[in-house]
Each structure stands twice: as C-alpha cells, then as structure tokens.
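Consider one such protein record:
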Amino acid sequence: QVQLVESGGGLVQAGGSLRLSCAASGRTFSSYAMGWFRQAPGKEREFVAAIVWSGGSTSYADSVKGRFTISRDNAKNTVYLQMNSLLPEDTAVYYCARSVGRGAYDSWGQGTQVTVSS
C-alpha cells in the first residue's frame, strides 16, 4: 500500500475556489490511477473525479463537471483537485485514493474538510 496525505481544505464562500493536494509516498505512484471522493455529513461517500496514471484521461461526477479539474504531477508524487465555482452542497470531507482497477481503491488518505458557506 501507499500513504496518502491530503491538504488544502478550508472554509470558502460560495463561488470561491480551493485546490486540494494529495501527496503519496513510495516509488510506484506514477503506475496507478488516482481518484478523489467526498463524504458529506449523513451521506455516503461518493466519487468526485479520477485520473489515469499518465494524466491523459480523466473522469468526473456529473455534479462537478465543468467546475472541478483533477490533475497530477508524477515527479512530485502528487494529485490535485482544483475546485472552482464552489457551492454549499460541495461541503464534505474530501479523500484521495489509489485505484487498483475495476473501480476498486486500496489506499485512502485521512481526508481534508471543505466547507462552503452560502
């Protein structure tokens, strides 16, 4: 497994932006697709975005398309989530995770809180 550490969360007004970072340990980061998920209070964890190992392909939940952008820097072992035009319903704990294929993820960070005020 790999250790993942998220950062960049905080409190922002609706319409604002945040950039989340997820730093990974180990030498195999560039071999894996990575994903971002979120969990709001009282709700199940949901998929937000994913990116393949090369960064050449990405996917997004419908609720964030056009507002969020996932990217990665394999030289820095880091994956990012740029979040623009934030809405109060984006409030959640955001987690990054490592994909092991077929929709499965085997390593998770501790999460970073994002709170969007109206």
User: Anything to note?
Assistant: The first strand starts at residue 4 and ends at 7.
